[in-house]
Each structure stands twice: as C-alpha cells, then as structure tokens.
Amino acid sequence: MSVSELSQSQKITATNRRFSVAPMLDWTDRHYRYFARLMSSEALLYTEMVTTGAILHGKGDYLAYNSEEHPLALQLGGSNPADLAACAKKAQEYGYDEVNLNVGCPSDRVQNGMFGACLMGEAALVANCVDAMRQVVDIPVTVKTRIGIDDQDSYEFLTQFIDTVKGVGCDTFIVHARKAWLQGLSPKENREIPPLDYPRVYQLKQDYPDLHISINGGVTSIEQAQAHLLHLDGVMVGREAYQNPYILSRVDNELCGHSLPLMSREEVIGKMIPYIERHLADGGRLNHITRHIIGLYQGLPGSRAWRRHLSENAHKPGATVQVVLDALEKMQQQAALQAV
What we know:
Blueprint: E1 19-21, H1 30-39, E2 44-51, H2 52-57, E3 72-77, H3 81-94, E4 98-103, H4 108-112, H5 123-136, E5 141-146, H6 155-166, E6 172-176, H7 187-190, H8 198-207, E7 212-216, H9 222-228, E8 234-237, H10 239-243, H11 251-254, H12 265-281, H13 287-293, H14 303-313, H15 322-339
C-alpha cells in the first residue's frame, strides 16, 4: 500500500494524537491492533518495537499490517542513522502514518544493542538518527522517551535532551513520566518502581509550547486521560488498553469530540468473527487472536467464564470461531445466574 492510496481521514491529525495506545512487545501485534480499531476510529495505534536489524536482515515481513489499522505508527529500535533512515523509508512505502524512535525501553537486551532508554545519554546520536529519518520521509518522525536514566534524572538533563533532538526538527515527543534504571531493575519493574512525575512532563509542555507533548505511564481510565489533557497535547495508554480493552470504546466520544453510538462488546465480537475466520483460513491458530480479546469483559459478571473457556480451548488444534461463540454464551449464562 502506498501513501497515495491512503485517504485523508487515515492521516494522523491533532484529534487522534490526543489518545494513543503504547507500543508493547508481544502485545500490540496486528491482531490486537485490528481489534482495538473496532472500538476507536481515532486512537493512534503503535506497532510493537521492531529493530532495524529485523527489517533489513530478517526473513519475515516485519512491516505487514491490516489496512484497517490506520492511523498507525511504526516504532523502531536502533541507533544507526543509515539503518534507521532505510527502515523509515520502507515504513513510508508501506503506508505507515508515523515513524517513532524508541528511547525508552530499559531491557538489557535493548541496551546491548545500543538502543532504547540508554540513548537518552546520547542526545546527539538520537538527533542524528532523527535527522537521517526526516531527510528521507514526509511522514512525522517522533520520539518516545523517559524523563531520565539512572542518576541523570534532573529536569535540566531532560530539557538538554529535548533541545538537542528538537534542534533537528522533531516536534513530537511521547514522554513516559518515569526515569529508567538501566541496571538492577527488570523492564516490568521499570514500569512500576521508579515514581511517576507527571508535573515534570507538565512543566515540559509549559516550557516548550510549540512542541506536541504526550504523556505515558500509569494511566488507567478515561477520566485520568481527561485530566492530563488539561495540561498536555496527548495521552498514551499501555497496559490498561490491553488488559481492559473496552476502555477504547469511550475514546472517540469523550476525548476526540465525536458523538457516536457506543458499540457493545457483543458487537465488537461480531465484527471480529470474520477476521478470525480469515486468519484461520490462512493457516493461523485461534489463540493468536483470542489472547488479545480475553480482557474484553474485564470486571463484568460472567467475565471469569469467558476467560476460562477461551484459555482452556482456543489453543487446541483445529479450534474454530465456535470456541469464541461458546465462551460468549457461557459468559452470558453466568452473568444471568449472578443477576438472580
């Protein structure tokens, strides 16, 4: 798909930059993104982080996606400007709406590859990478970063990083409001242990009013997103949008100014059935998709029956969409019993 084939409505706009779903390794694959798009036409979706090495030297097609996923951003992991430029050019040719550079992942594997959060300490290199990508594409090139790393966690350190990268024309930053400890904490711990510092990100927007600043980290409700949007341009939600995906059904109306009928969970499932059938017909397995929809009924009566039936049956050889329909029936039966 070329850029020229995309309709204007699929381009990233100020409206859909108000809410985005974070890139999450092993979670935000194309099946999840198709599912998420059913519930929100406006949310900006991100791929999992894809390394430049995988794109340039891997055997698979790491850039494939469903056309329905727009607006869609590709997150890249890497630190070689020439490689990143080559990948950004490929992304534009594939029709991606944005290329994002990962300067936030703290895992050891990522550090060993010299990308992710460790790049915060190499602002000039990040600027070179962003500049190289911007030279070869017309789509936005953005940066997702932390507020600091290790003992380099002052506001001055953060603004020096922003100034350097801003200097090559980058005008959009997604800021995870925690610093990253590069040694001693796992990626999971780095999402939970370093304290959130929302005021620091708010201050960044005050000091750089010309930049588009989105916040990431710890957001678990639409109400919290609304509160952040009083101070910032956008909100990125990660785990909550995956584990409780129906939150996305409120995005278009409550954050993006639409006035649309609310799609029920059952309608979402109904729209997923043809997609699942196509995936199975192409040789895919049912659990490739059901693992993403298992949280659809999070917190509702009968949700345990839904999760249990999918978990126990979707992985079996030859499993069909009937497993999903049976899980829905069991959920509804259990919910009815609990209502008596």
